[in-house]
Amino acid sequence: MTFRAHILGAAAGGGLPQWNCGCENCNLARAGVIPSQTQSSVAFSANDLDWAVLNASPDIRQQLAQTPVLHPTDLRQSPLRSILLTNGDIDHIAGLLTLREQQAFTLFATKDIHGVLADNPVFDALNPNFVTRKTIKLGEPVEIAPGLRAALFAVPGKVPLYLEGASVQTDLEGEQTVGVCLQADGKTAYYIPGCSTFRPDLRARTDGADAVFFDGTLWQDDEMVAAGLSQKTGQRMGHMSMSGPDGSIEAFKDLNIAQKIFVHMNNTNPVLRPGSPQLKQAEASGWTIAQDGMEITI
Question: How far apart are CA 44 and CA 198, in angstroms?
Fold first, then answer.
């Protein structure tokens, strides 16, 4: 058995380049100076034959086409065994509509996230004769592909943008934003693409892990404000920053984790520019910056 991860999409919502963004990173990506990145998704397998995809990004058709291990093995047979959702954000659920062509797989999510899908009839395009929707309770281990077990846990976050009301709680803990503990071949990995606060329970949970794939949305909290692109900080969007005394690099620095990988980078994040000081600082702190197509053995 080989416990393996394949980065399908390393970017946050909008990808790199984002279609309507003229920031430095997006212009460099359009010019081919830095690599383009599709939207957030990672595939995991315990045997290199059967795969579970965590989050169905809007770019999933392109991602599957670019990933030979996920190519069809027969006329209508795919190595894809399941999709697991960590929240109801558009960049994590819109790809489900691409997976409607009579392909059998299991769709795993919490009750709250399944509720978001059930409330929108467009997702009825997923034929129940082929797509089985299974609810996962927090802390309940389930097999999401042969030899690959997953358990969900709450992490601080917020509801999807399209469900926000007049006031927004960005450190809400419940079923709307979850992390995933993945186990196979005697090893443990964590997938946490969204997290607004690093609390002691998360520190204790991840210490000693073989791999952690963690929210790398912004380098600094006011990154998008300083760039003139938005009035929202990272905290307002429900994400920790990489840098600073309250950032994820500092939070993880004393933990015993074999591999630390940042995923879900916003198009403005300077770590996406090869050779940038921010990339060098992240790598010097023991972090790998995910890139589309990257394969990681756990």
Answer: 24
Q: Which residues contact 245 (CB under 8 A, 6 or more apart)?
A: none
- In single-letter form, the type of residue at position 13 comes to G
* Residues 6+ positions from 124 with CB-CB distance below 8 Å: none
Residue 183's φ and ψ, nearest 5 degrees, are: -135, 135
120-127: average pLDDT: 96
Cα of 74 vs its chain's centroid, Å: 29
**pLDDT at residue 234 in the model:** 62
3-state secondary structure 79-139: CEEEEECCECCHHHHHHHHHHCCCCCEEEEECHHHHHHHHCCHHHHHCCCCCEEEEECCCC
Tens digits of per-residue pLDDT, 131-162?
999 999 999 999 999 999 999 999 998 878 78
- Of 206, 222, 216, the C-alpha closest to 282 is 216
Determine if the peptide bond prior to 17 is cis (ω within 30°): yes
Q: What domains can be seen in the chain, in order of their start residue?
A: 4-289 (3.60.15.10)
Average pLDDT over residues 168-176: 84
Q: For 218, how many CA atoms within 13 A lie in the half-sphere containing its CB?
A: 24
Give me the amino acid identity at 3.
Answer: F
CA-based torsion, 52, 56, 61, 66: positive or negative: negative
Amino acid present at 293: G
Predicted model pTM = 0.96
